[in-house]
Design goal:
This protein is an alpha/beta fold and about 725 residues long. The chain is about 60% helix and about 10% strand. The chain folds into 4 domains: about 160 residues, Rossmann fold; about 90 residues, Helix Hairpins (Orthogonal Bundle), CATH 1.10.287.1770; about 190 residues, no CATH class; about 160 residues, no CATH class. It has a 7-stranded mixed beta sheet with strand order 2-3-4-1-5-6-8, with helices on both faces. The structure holds guanosine-5'-diphosphate and magnesium ion.
């Protein structure tokens, strides 16, 4: 059996190629010990060829988790051949990874992907020359159209027969001398076929590679001397010498092998001139997001949701079911459990699935087309101004689906401070599970007015930016932004297969949650809202029984006590309190709670006969627009669900930091909702109150935090320095 590792830059088409080669027989798992997806599968037509899909990477330097995983795989698992996917429309950038793979000496075949794009643009690539310059086979393919795949497999099988790639690129003379000397020193300590690679890594002072060899200190000292000599000869740091020479090498190759058809800008570049324009970028981004939310939550999604809520759950399921229960004389509590608890709660959540699917569909489309890469680029420009890297934006992007992988994605940020900051703020972005809350408030209270749904996205993004600004000025987060290099892939026509698959996966996991966690939570809420201590029938004392009015239930009694906290925010009634708290179980459950508590008011079966069930109107009753939006703001920003909190705990790897992160979110959510509500009623004409004074104080504090001078190194007080040293 031949094992082929598939390596390439993000967006080079790895997933597309992998799916084309393996068909449906892939296996997705985790790399042991880490949470990066690992895909492997067998080639459809040739079962003896196994393909491992490595994470998308720009280089094999050991800075990000993906890079480390890929590198360790190539070093330790020793695949027979590497299939290096190169985006032919972006060859210069892609070849950087190629040179690093070739340095490893593993037999490599280059799959020159996106050839259809190159041909269409009229560019020419001299593949023969490219293959000669790099010393490995180069096969033109189009993963999307399935062209060239058989050639690729044939070349891969042939290359796998060789033990070692025959070709080595040459560096400048001083570097080659240094490499030779280092090579002599480490001979025996490393596998012979990796000697060249280790020599280069030692020269670059790559600590992770050095660690792997377990070389004696004397040898390390000698190597240090060799490096110093080389650095002196070329007057540069050793790592930048290698990087610089790599790029020179690549430029040499590409200028000889690529003939661009015209000097002018490609269509992609032309679009980018507008889309990433200094002044237009943000308005365009805002317009795009407004459009996305408008379509998914307000129009198309809402129509389907109304259908699911009213017709599907109302007329098709609830009414017949309720009638049937009455007919067969089901016990009151059982009918209530099923109708109010289960269908009320789970149904309310499931009712929003269509909206979420449309939202996911549109977000995946934006991602697949290549727009989101531009957004990361635009955001980098903005974030950088206050010391945050654009890398922060990638986790934010992922969080718009679900906060858990979003938090995990922050691992790619090298600076620990920036990583913590990202982990703390990434859950502010409304995730898929928050969509039902947004849709519920927008639909039920605001009658589907267009701006409510997109505004939720901007509230989240605003919270991230304000938090970044404030926290970056404090000691634990101060520091320069790490450089962020990101390739802007050319725009693509989206591959509907990819888009639909990713939408399907997200939608399905959501439905599964409705059937498990939401179901359980809804039953719990139903139980505590249906039972309570009522005066016993014989007159003496109280007894535990089903309550006539929900207001007498245990949940209402307990909830009313807690609700005091939310009075300054405008939604100090027990149902909203219970909903906010249950939101910690899963954010959809906020809607689930309203489904249980308001879906059917009073007599369960009575209202169903009126055909009112499923409509959102009862939910709106206790809210005004002001209190509803305040409720929305609080629930968007406060602590995320337990699953996301767990992810935060894992990534922070510290109870203290986790507690700080969660408290920060809650405090910020409270402050934001408080200001919104208090200023809202002030503007609406209510007089000054204690609440308005507090709101003004909070606003003043935030403004001060925003404008105060940033913490800098020399101002560090001694006790703080001691704290940091720990
Ligand atoms: P990955 O990030 O490396 O897994 O890349 P994907 O497989 O997700 O592909 C990125 C984008 O490139 C998708 O929109 C694909 O449809 C597109 N794509 C992949 N291969 C080709 C190709 O050969 N030709 C064209 N035109 N587009 C491609
Ligand atoms: Mg992919």
């Amino acid at each position: 059996m031949i094992t082929a590792a598939l390596a390439g830059n993000p967006n080079s088409g790895k997933t597309t190629l992998f799916n084309a080669l393996t068909g449906a027989n892939q296996r997705v798992g985790n790399w042991p010990g880490v949470t990066v997806d690992k895909k492997e599968g067998w080639v459809k037509k040739d079962r003896s060829l196994r393909i491992i899909d490595l994470p998308g990477i720009y280089s094999l330097s050991p800075y990000t988790l993906e890079e480390v995983i890929s590198r360790d795989f190539l070093l330790d698992e020793k695949p027979d051949v590497v299939i290096n996917l190169v985006d032919a429309s972006n060859i210069e950038r892609n070849l950087y990874l190629t040179t690093q793979i070739l340095d490893m000496g593993i037999p490599t075949v280059i799959a020159l992907n996106m050839m259809d794009v190159v041909r269409k643009a009229g560019d020419r690539i001299d593949t023969k020359k490219l293959s000669q310059s790099l010393g490995c086979p180069v096969v033109e393919i189009s993963a999307l159209k399935g062209e060239g795949l058989e050639d690729l497999l044939r070349e891969a099988a042939a290359a796998a027969g060789q033990k070692k790639a025959p070709f080595e690129r040459r560096f400048s003379a001083p570097v080659e001398q240094a490499l030779e000397k280092i090579g002599a020193l480490i001979a025996g300590a490393v596998p012979e076929e990796r000697r060249r690679w280790y020599s280069i890594k030692f020269f670059e002072q790559d600590a992770k590679a050095a660690e792997k060899t377990g070389l004696a200190p004397e040898a390390l000292g000698a190597i240090d001397k060799i490096i110093k000599e080389g650095e002196k000869a070329l007057d540069d740091a050793s790592a930048s010498i290698i990087t610089g020479e790599s790029y020179d090498y690549i430029t040499g190759i590409t200028s000889a092998c690529i003939k661009k058809s015209r000097k002018g800008l490609s269509a992609s570049d032309k679009i980018d001139r507008v889309v990433t324009n200094k002044w237009l970028a943000l308005p365009i981004f805002a317009a795009v997001m407004i459009f996305v939310y408008y379509i998914s939550v307000t129009t198309i999604g809402a129509i389907v949701t109304d259908f699911t809520n009213d017709t599907l759950f109302g007329s098709w399921i609830m009414e017949p079911l309720a009638g049937w229960f009455e007919e067969i004389g089901t016990a009151g509590w059982l009918a209530s459990l099923i109708v109010d608890g289960i269908i009320g709660g789970v149904g309310a959540v499931l009712g929003f699935v269509p909206q979420m699917l449309v939202l996911f569909l549109m977000l995946s489309l934006l991602e697949d087309v290549g727009y989101m890469a531009r957004v990361a680029f635009i955001m980098d420009r903005i974030f950088r101004r206050f010391g945050l890297s654009g890398k922060t934006f990638i986790p934010l992007l992922i969080s718009s689906g679900c906060g858990v992988p979003g938090v995990m994605a922050s691992r790619t940020i090298e600076s620990e401070r920036d990583r913590r900051l990202t982990v703390m703020t990434t859950c502010f972005v409304p995730c898929g599970a928050k969509t039902p809350i947004v849709a519920m408030i927008a639909g039920a209270v605001f009658g589907g007015v267009w701006w409510v749904a997109p505004s939720a996205y901007f509230v989240g993004l605003g919270a991230v930016i304000i938090s970044g600004l404030i926290l970056k000025k404090t000691r634990p987060f101060a520091g320069k932004a790490a450089p962020f290099v990101m390739e802007l892939p050319s725009y693509h026509v989206p591959a509907m297969g990819n888009v639909l698959r990713s939408m399907g996966e997200r939608g399905w996991s959501f439905i599964k949650r409705a059937g498990t966690i939401i179901l359980m939570a809804s039953i719990v809420v139903w139980f505590f809202s249906s039972f309570g201590f009522v005066p016993a029938e014989d007159g003496g004392g109280t007894s535990f029984a089903m309550v006539e009015e929900m207001d007498e239930s245990m949940l209402a009694v307990a909830g009313t006590k807690v609700a005091v906290i939310f009075r300054p925010l405008g939604f100090g009634f027990w149902q909203a309190t219970v909903a906010s708290i249950m939101g910690l179980v899963a954010k959809e459950e906020v809607v689930g709670v309203f489904g249980v508590l308001f879906g059917v008011e009073g007599d369960a079966l009575g209202l169903v006969e009126d055909g009112d069930f499923g409509a959102l109107s009862p939910i709106a009753a206790p809210f005004t627009m002001l209190t509803a939006y305040s409720f929305l703001v609080f629930n968007l920003l406060c602590a995320p669900c337990f699953a996301a909190m767990g992810a935060i705990r894992r990534e922070m790897n510290s109870g203290k930091w986790t507690a700080f992160a969660i408290s920060y979110m809650c405090v910020l959510a409270y402050a934001a909702a408080l200001m919104f509500y208090q200023f809202g009623i002030l503007i609406a004409g209510a007089g000054f109150s204690l609440g308005s004074v507090v709101a003004i104080a909070v606003l003043a504090l935030i403004i001060w935090l925003l404008v105060k001078p940033a913490w800098t190194e020399k101002k560090a007080a001694a006790p703080l320095a001691a704290e940091a040293a720990r």
